[in-house]
């Protein structure tokens, strides 16, 4: 069917051709020669006629991939769960970072293709939400090379199906019927060494935002999600001493209240531009998101000649180790780091305690004749 025939059969239909790109089709709205609507599908699509008629009437129909998934499908369940999670974020009951991560994972899950005989090759998005255990096992096997991602996908599926069961959308949680992907922690972020800290400070002098960032992370042990907004509004005075008090935004964290030690107070007062947060961009505004500050931190790290894996969380871990080395108990570290679970802070004290035990054990060999 040629372009000329198309115009005769479909008044107002205008092809738009750009070299190197597929032809797109626009429709002039009937009665309004100045308004055109771009169709989401071409003439070869079975729904083309429906889209064309709607556009002639001045209505743009969503593309097939943008249409709401059918109720009862896995796509419908996961998108319903995302809407619920977004409401939780707005109410302060869930982390925006969790929502962002799971939204990306939903797109990944729904793009998967079924391996079951009856639905082989079909996208997960259109499958019934009660996905069989054998399908989930096959999906898990496909993610064997990325165990961290697989673990996060399982957390998403488990939470989404729990959401569905609690609201009567489905009777069982198939993600709980299959063993979660095996995952062995690699230790997380690399703790900064004393030499790392020295090299960073040599490159980024007092008065710079980079120097303040390092000092803030080191002497408050705050997370990067809190460093974006921590500032003078969180300052308190107790007995003439400056303190910082804040509620970490990570879900489940406890309130933190700590004194501001001299190095951090000097770094704060060295700033020539004062804003709503301690850490400001070159334009004098707070960083738009933790990701924006994370990217800037990586730039500062590379400028200091440090390995790219040195992150703000590695400074937090270094602070935990130094606190333990200087005799802090796991409960004292909990108060600084905002941990709700003692086992999380025990990681630092346990390591130092083993070092001391090793020192004591080896000292017993000092008097041996060799």
Automatic annotation (TrEMBL):
UniProt keyword terms in alphabetical order: DNA integration, DNA recombination, DNA-binding
Gene3D superfamilies on file: 1.10.150.130, Intergrase catalytic core (1.10.443.10)
InterPro entries: DNA_brk_join_enz, Integrase-like_cat_sf, Integrase_catalytic, Integrase_recombinase_N, Tyrosine_recombinase_XerCD
Keyword DNA-binding on entry: yes
SUPFAM superfamilies hit by this protein: DNA breaking-rejoining enzymes (SSF56349)
Domain of life: Bacteria
Signal peptide (from-to): none
Ranges of residues in domain Tyr recombinase: 187-362
One Gene Ontology biological process: DNA recombination
GO MF, one annotated term: DNA binding
Protein name: Site-specific recombinase XerC
Annotated organism of origin: Salipiger marinus
